[in-house]
Specification:
The complex is a heterodimer of chains A (265) and B (268). Chain A has a two-stranded antiparallel ribbon with strand order 1-2. Chain A has helices at residues 2-22, 25-52, 61-95, 98-103, 108-114, 120-138, 145-171, 173-176, 180-185, 187-193, 202-211, 214-217, 219-226, 233-257, and strands at residues 55-56, 59-60. In chain A, 78% of the residues lie in helices and 2% in strands. Chain A is globular and about 60 Å long. Chain B is mostly helical. Chain B has one domain (2-262). Chain B is built from eleven helices and no strands. In chain B, α7 packs antiparallel against α10. The longest helix of chain B is centred in the last third of the chain and has 31 residues, at 232-262. Chain B is globular and about 65 Å long. The chains are: A mainly alpha (265), B mainly alpha (268). The A-B interface holds A 24, 27, 30-31, 33-34, 37-38, 41, 44-45, 48-49, 51-57, 178, 181-182, 185, 188-189, 191-192, 195-196, 198-201, 204 and B 18, 21, 24-25, 28-29, 31-32, 34-35, 38-39, 41-43, 46-47, 50-51, 53-54, 176, 179-180, 182-183, 186, 189-190, 195-196, 200-201.
Chain lengths: 265, 268
């Protein structure tokens, strides 16, 4: 009953999103172009970096391309499912439209988090896969089924971490109402997810590994794929921190929701 | 003139409302900045010959990104383009067609006010950050270069503003301009030297980029400050930058005139 009902609901939400996107076809395509340009910019940056040197730490050029690809893949999938919804939450609170969602006989967090699907992001995620495949070819990688599974599973963990962290930031709007700036601030963290972990040291590395694990999110799956993982510690850490943040975000959501007093009443 | 000063004043005060937002934005922007510095430091420590092609030493590379952050605080267009586009879409510009206030100058005043407010809010965290990196900060090569740098900084801000203004005018014809703004921004990000100093590029590509206005939106004033554009190069660059400002102003006015002809007021 439960799961099937939610699946049905989600299919309906998808249909809605398709209809919405198709009513602005030009814009839909242009957004894909925008994302491709920014992705190209990052790849261009990699080639500029490796015109100066042969390796960053132990990372070679095509390994870093693999990393940029993986980071983009995770970011695009995150964007496809969650980003618009996270940034919209403060608007729902400000206008009081959240009332309407609270009244529905469905888990509110499910609705708030998954209402809108950004279909263009799937196209860009696919492009990221192509870039990764090309980089893997250049590296002469032949990942085993186990490696591919590990990569995919860790990507899911990465997406859940991005989602949990951003959802916490979005939930701050129950306290300050205008939280959109804070949510966009998180975008800066995406920027460091695609930099090789070996470029960092000291407190910065510790914070962004153990507390806000953005340095693990795409580095660890890439290392699994490129077979450069030093030990199982890092993926266990990624998983552990991921679970911790999911639990915290659910707790924070419940606490925050109690503060909701709707608009104009 | 007095009315425009009033606009600056009001704009400054309304911008201060968002001081927390500005502070948060500045603090958040240090994260990628710091990451960029770490990345380059790792490259230089792994390969001593890394600066051979670009002529940048490790210290200069770090300093370059610090200067980008400083110049950005003073000159970047923040939300002006979105607001202008919204004004057009929602019909708020109708009143300017009746009042003896020019919309372009009105927006320019708001832009200046916004920058003053932003500088005021970002000054403290930025100063702290610079303090920690003080070892990398270099003095400009001469008083003259510093003077030219300041002039160029103003021109940079004007160029950024006029280009964004002209871009926002597209809202007269299009419902959604955010995609186009982001496409332009992507080119600016690369070609203005935001992502890396243009010297690391092959010289052919660099020369092509210098035919566009983009390097004059950020890269040129930094070049002057670092003494990489000196003597004749500096004056020629300044002249070209001035020309681009005039051209962008002309384009902005042209777009406005064409747009107003097309304009039929929201709901009218």
């Amino acid at each position: 009953m439960g799961l099937a009902r939610y699946l049905n609901l989600y299919v309906a939400l998808w249909k809605n999103s398709v209809t919405r996107e198709m009513s602005f076809k030009g814009n839909f395509l242009l957004w894909i172009v925008v994302e491709i340009l920014w992705f190209g910019l990052q790849l261009c940056f990699v080639s500029v970096l490796y015109a100066q040197t042969d390796s960053i730490g132990t990372w070679t050029q095509w390994q870093m391309v693999l990393l940029v690809g993986a980071s983009n893949f995770i970011q695009q999938l995150y964007q496809a499912f969650f980003l618009t919804n996270c940034t919209n939450l403060s608007e729902l609170v400000r206008t009081g439209k959240l009332d309407f969602l609270l009244l529905l006989p469905v888990n509110t967090r499910f609705l708030v988090s998954l209402r809108v699907v950004d279909l263009g992001a799937f196209v860009n995620a696919l492009l990221a896969v192509c870039v990764m495949a090309f980089a893997a070819m250049k590296l002469h990688l032949a990942p085993s089924a186990g490696q591919l599974f590990g990569f995919a599973a860790l990507c899911v963990v990465g997406i859940m971490i991005h989602y949990s962290l951003m959802f916490i930031l979005a939930t701050i709007c129950f306290w300050t109402v205008r939280a959109q700036g804070i949510v966009w601030g998180y975008y800066n963290l995406f920027n460091i997810a695609r930099i090789p972990d070996e470029a960092f040291r000291g407190a910065f590395k510790a914070v962004f590994t153990f507390v806000l694990p953005v340095l693990l999110v795409s580095n660890v799956p890439t290392r699994v794929l490129a077979d450069t993982l030093a030990s199982w510690h890092s993926w266990a850490l990624l998983l552990g921190v991921g679970i911790a943040w999911s639990v915290i975000s659910e707790w924070f959501w419940r606490v925050s929701l109690r503060r909701y007093t709707s608009a104009s009443s | 003139m007095k009315k425009y000063l009033h606009v600056v004043n009001v704009g400054f005060q309304s911008n201060l409302q968002y001081r927390f937002n500005y502070l948060a934005r500045t603090l958040f922007s240090f994260i990628p900045l710091f990451a960029m510095l770490s990345l380059w430091r790792t490259i230089y420590s792994g390969n001593a010959a890394a600066g051979g092609h670009s002529g940048f030493t490790e210290a200069q590379m770090v300093f370059y990104y610090l200067l980008v952050a400083v110049v950005d605080v003073f000159t970047a267009v923040n939300e002006d383009d979105w607001q202008i586009a919204a004004d057009i879409r929602e019909g708020a510009i109708s009143q300017f067609l009746l009042k003896p206030v020019d919309y372009l100058w009105y927006r320019l005043c708001l832009f200046v006010a916004g920058r003053i407010a932003f500088v005021a809010m970002a000054a403290v965290p930025l100063a702290v950050f610079i303090f920690f990196c003080r070892g990398y900060f270099l003095a400009p090569p001469s008083g003259l270069a510093f003077g030219v740098f300041l002039v160029s900084l103003v021109l940079t801000a004007l160029l950024q503003f006029f280009i964004s203004y002209a871009m926002a005018m597209l809202a007269f014809w299009l419902l959604e301009i955010s995609t186009l703004v982001f496409i332009l921004f992507a080119f600016e990000y690369l070609a203005s030297g935001h992502l890396f100093p243009l010297d690391v590029l092959p010289s052919g590509i660099k020369q092509i980029l210098f035919l566009t206005p983009f390097p004059y939106q950020l890269y040129f004033p930094i070049q002057v400050y670092m003494g990489k554009a000196a003597g004749l190069d500096m004056w020629r660059g300044l002249a070209i930058q001035t020309l681009w400002v005039v051209a962008a102003y002309g384009l902005a006015c042209f777009m406005w005139r064409r747009g107003v002809k097309k304009y039929s007021a929201f709901g009218g």
